[in-house]
Amino acid sequence: MVRTDDDIGFDWADDAPAPGLPAEGFSVRWSRVTTFEQGLYRFYATMDDGMRVYVDEELLIDEWQDRSEREVVASRQMSAGSHVLRVEYYDRRHGALANLRWEKDRSYAGWKGTYWANPDLLGQPLLMRDDLQIDFDWQMESPDASIPSDRFSASWTRIALLEEGIYRFRALADDGLRIWVDGRLILDAWSDHEQQEMTVDHVMAGAGAHTIQVAYYDNQFNARVRVSMDKVDGPWYVGWKGEYFANPYLAGPPTLVRNDDWLTFDWEWSSPAPSLPADDFSVRWTLEKEIEPGVYRFAFHVDDGVRFYVDDRLLIDEWHSARNETYQVDVELSWKPKLVVEMFEESGDARVNVSWTRIR
Question: Same domain for 290 and 319?
Fold first, then answer.
């Protein structure tokens, strides 16, 4: 098949690109001549499985391999005038995704805003501009005359110099929203919904430059998006302070810190949050609150390992692979004890359920 494609912006998933072609084991070659202004350009290629990108017959991106979805960025100095672009792509099996876009390098005082005339951030964007903040209430209108009022998407990126510590992201969106910090997805609400407020805490592992990216789409009717970020000094947790690690050893800085009201989680085969894996993660919960002194019976139902501390005393140490095990311990508590629960997940189901009752 030979046809004209306006952009390389396709997410075929498990479907075929067109009737007469297979859904797996196909390849495509796109060629075009386009005009550039002089300057440094960044080329963004997203693919599943393999892709090559040539500029004037020079190989710029070479990702010709079976791999799941990923983005590769390459820069090239372009002279003013016409240049020949060629993109080669193949899909081996399962999901099929091919997307290429480019932009001229420039500095932004606020957020680098990129806008597409589709809800999937696919193909060459129609608009790029400097947005001082992400706080828009377009209602039934569009962000710009070049963008439709429905079924559009946008991405905002900025590099911020931040101190080390916990940062609270507050977001409001109608419809879908995602937030990444340093390439790690920390908030995933990519679905159609009316105006919804969301909050997530994220630990900046070190002081310095951090890349923050926000993606948004509007399906139809009202369009609204707002994102802000503040450093949280000495957070006060009304429940358990949950520190989540993307490894099973509680090692390094936590990937996610949040307030958990109760330790009653049955994640099954899923992960606790978008920024964490479904397997090989660990969590430390800490609780300090006033309670009536007495003897309490604690029960733990976990998969896999668990430890339990009271005022830094290790009372339960079952740090090993296990399947739906239950442990119990009686302990005398003071009026404001420090309780710490640690767990790790190896593979398969992941769950933790902690309960306690005063027995005397």
Answer: yes
Q: Report DSSP letters for 157-213, one per residue.
A: EEEEEE-SEEEEEEEEEESEEEEEETTEEEEEE-S--SSEEEEEEEEE-SSEEEEEE
pLDDT in tens, 143-181: 999 999 999 999 999 999 998 888 999 999 999 999 999
**Domain with 56 in it:** 9-104
Pairwise CA distance, residues 135 & 123, whole Å: 25
- Residue range 315-358, pLDDT digits in tens: 999 999 999 999 999 999 998 899 999 999 999 999 999 999 99
Last residue of a domain, one of 176, 199, 232: 232
The number of folded domains in the chain is 3
Q: What would the two tokens of residue 156 be?
A: 């905002």
- The reply to whether 212 and 305 lie within a common domain is no
154 DSSP β-pair partners:
115, 216
User: Other CB atoms closer than 10 Å to residue 308's CB: what's the count?
Assistant: 21
